[in-house]
Design brief:
By secondary structure, the chain is an alpha/beta fold. The protein folds into 2 domains: 184 residues, Aldolase class I (TIM Barrel); 96 residues, no CATH class. It is built from 10 helices and 16 strands. The strands form 4 sheets. The protein has a 10-stranded mixed beta sheet with strand order 6-7-8-5-4-3-1-12-13-14. Strands 2-16 form a two-stranded antiparallel sheet. β4, α3 and β5 form a beta-alpha-beta unit. α1 runs parallel beside α2. It starts with 6 loop residues before the first strand and ends with a helix.
């Protein structure tokens, strides 16, 4: 690889907000702890410009929290397409906030693109809202093809993927001891990494991080007052990689990206007691009941 060529990567999760309308105890971005933050559009474009000087991606996803809460989401999708003409541009949603056609229209305009809708509730009441939104704001206004029960192709090149998260189990990335937020102390980074399931490359505030939980640790520590807690010291030392780093630093970063890291992975459990996700999901308000009344 020459110094002038870009590093080719499969995908990245680019975080644009930490705010979410759901309250999931297992959230790997700690959105259940009300870390309210929204990326500014101007900063997003500047950071994206810096990042893409060194790397390129096959797929690029704007993430949260709940990305649809960001008032400038469609602008960011368009900016992403401007900088990445050949990349699949996408975003994620829990489905409750798909209440108009603007998002899908933007995905059509920026295709190839994608939208993953994650189902977090087993009960019919909640699912009715999500599937009503899909019918009203995706299927009715646009031409589509149903590929299978989980995939819809809109306007030939916009993939809508519906993922039932209730069929899986997750584990927490922290524990509460005597009312305090604490890491795990398993000292088995290899098995912690194997059981994690969240070792995805994440971009947050102009830096690359090994995984979502470590990216949100400092905001958590600042808000909840454990910056000086010695149990978190080794993890808080990790600051990720600046988008402005040299290509050599990028290459060194990616050597470790998809491997267990003894200095980081021990914050998570090596043999987690997995619980059904359904037990830990709730809404932060009763707005969904009003939506249900409107859709009935």
């Amino acid at each position: 690889m020459s110094l002038n060529s870009k590093i080719q990567l499969a995908s990245i999760d680019y975080m644009i907000t930490s705010t979410c309308n759901l309250n999931c105890e297992f959230c790997d971005r700690f959105s259940n702890f009300n870390l309210s933050w929204f990326e500014k559009v101007e900063q997003f474009e500047e950071d994206l410009d810096n990042l893409l000087k060194t790397v390129s991606f096959k797929s690029f996803d704007l993430m949260g929290g709940e990305p649809l809460l960001h008032p400038k989401l469609t602008n960011m999708l368009k900016i992403s397409r401007k900088y990445m003409p050949n990349t699949t541009i996408g975003t994620f949603s829990n489905g409750f906030l798909i209440k108009d056609t603007n998002l899908i229209e933007t995905l059509v305009d920026t295709q190839p693109s994608s939208l993953q809708i994650s189902i977090h509730f087993k009960d019919k009441e909640h699912q009715q809202i999500i599937y009503s939104n899909i019918k009203e704001f995706i299927l009715k206004p646009f031409s589509y093809e149903i590929i299978d029960k989980n995939n819809i192709l809109v306007d030939k090149n916009v993939n809508i993927h519906i993922k039932d998260q209730t069929r899986h189990t997750w584990n927490n990335f922290y524990q509460i001891i005597d009312g305090k937020f604490k890491p795990f102390f398993d000292s088995d980074p290899i098995n912690s990494y194997k059981t994690c399931g969240h070792s995805c490359l994440l971009a947050f505030k102009g830096r690359l991080f090994k995984c979502p939980p470590i990216s949100q640790l400092r905001p958590m520590a600042e808000k909840y007052g454990f910056l000086e807690d010695p149990d978190w010291e080794q993890y808080l030392k990790y600051t990720g990689l600046s988008f402005n780093a040299s290509k050599e630093d990028y290459l060194e970063f990616f050597k470790k990206q998809w491997k267990p890291d003894p200095s980081l992975c021990t914050m998570c459990p090596s043999s987690p007691d997995k619980s059904e996700k359904q037990k830990f999901v709730s809404h932060k308000s009763d707005y969904y009941k009003r939506l249900l009344a409107l859709s009935s």
